[in-house]
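User: Hi! Is it possible to get a structure for several chains at once, not just one? Here's what I have:
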Amino acid sequence: MSKEPEDTIASRISRVLADRIVRGELAPGARLRQDHIAEEFQTSHVPVREAFRRLEAQGLAISEPRRGVRVASFDLAEVREVAEMRAVLEVLALRHAARHLTPAILDAAEEATREGDAAADVHAWEEANRRFHRLILAPCGMRRLLASIDDLHAASARFLFSAWQSGWEKRTDHDHRAILAALRQGKTDEAAATLQKHVQWIGRGPQPAKNGAPREIFAIVG
Amino acid sequence: MSKEPEDTIASRISRVLADRIVRGELAPGARLRQDHIAEEFQTSHVPVREAFRRLEAQGLAISEPRRGVRVASFDLAEVREVAEMRAVLEVLALRHAARHLTPAILDAAEEATREGDAAADVHAWEEANRRFHRLILAPCGMRRLLASIDDLHAASARFLFSAWQSGWEKRTDHDHRAILAALRQGKTDEAAATLQKHVQWIGRGPQPAKNGAPREIFAIVG
DNA sequence: GGAGTCAAAATTATCTATAATTTTAAAAGG
DNA sequence: CCTTTTAAAATTATAGATAATTTTGACTCC
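Assistant: Yes, the chains can be modeled jointly so their relative placement is included. Here is the combined structure:
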């Protein structure tokens, strides 16, 4: 009945592995062993290797010839990099999307914001946040741009899940509403400026470590 | 002695195919048949399939499950999209690179511009142009950003090779020198503004078709 | 006890083989 | 003559097997 858009085993594996990496179930640096993964998915390792190539392109894994594939690690520099790339690309997308935004889309985006408010955990909150961004940007109709933004969102979510601090979401919800208000009034420049700051804001705080030195943690929240 | 950075067969195949697509030796829409390519490279089709996944991620090929892989086609909308993405990402990179630029780097960039002036054909000119951009942007040290820009440069080169018009290069050389002059004086904002316009400029002209209707052609020249 | 060495085990990269699907082209029917 | 059907050929996707490399871990020697 419903036909999955991507129906190869390789794409299914890459989706599942990407999700695990983003959620932190697979730790940075962890080895991805093709035979083990093949066994888990009840396939041979050929589609597994193809999935690895996609993860590599998304920046979620790194592959060293003959030495296998590992989950990509990240640091503050990369968090900053992803935040800044998202800022400029999302602003670009919004400027093109603006003329195609309908009240219905903006209502849906507001609904996503409300769902974020009510979210029970970080994952639900992140899902709502991503939907908000997708809703207001997708009408730009630029496929390559939207694909890049999606990959950057995955990276952002990774950082977020690894370092969530309650309280951060308040700022986000406020920004979302400001962006929507500006868009409703046709103030595209204002909306773009708010979006730019919003995405670039990086949450920081001390790691609530039980033992050892409390190192600093950080994440893109918008 | 010299060790190739990528030593798997798959990566070699993807490099060669990417080059052929960019140069236009493989036309948009052309089918990439794994067995034929495997035979040409004296391998099986397993590494060929891995190479396909990379080309797909770079936006040079599109894959339809069970129906094979084709060279991606493009239109004016995508040329614009790539130009605008390059504009915002290269400006971002330049702003970070600026503080790390040395006179030696700027001299090398000027040399690249001179080589572009003297280039005998489009391919040599494109190579010099890309080197110019890489030289002034690489010092930003942002790996993900630079990788994205590289992919966009490949797409740009594709458009360029498919629609070269003599005369376009004059504008580029002028822009390059203006950017370098601004950077030498520490005027980063001015350099960034020039770069932004430079990359976004799209060359257009009538196709010099021998027969049939002269349709319009276009390319990113910067 | 620790550094270095070497062999066994695990793992990667690739090839060959096979099943399933799509493309093609030819034949039949209107 | 054009459409539809149908069978053959080509092609894709995956499985299973093999060679080469890397990792692991025990053992020796200092």
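Residues 33-35, 45, 49, 65-68 of chain B lie near DNA strand D (CB under 10 Å from a C1'). Chain B is about 65% helix and 10% strand.

User: Great, thank you!
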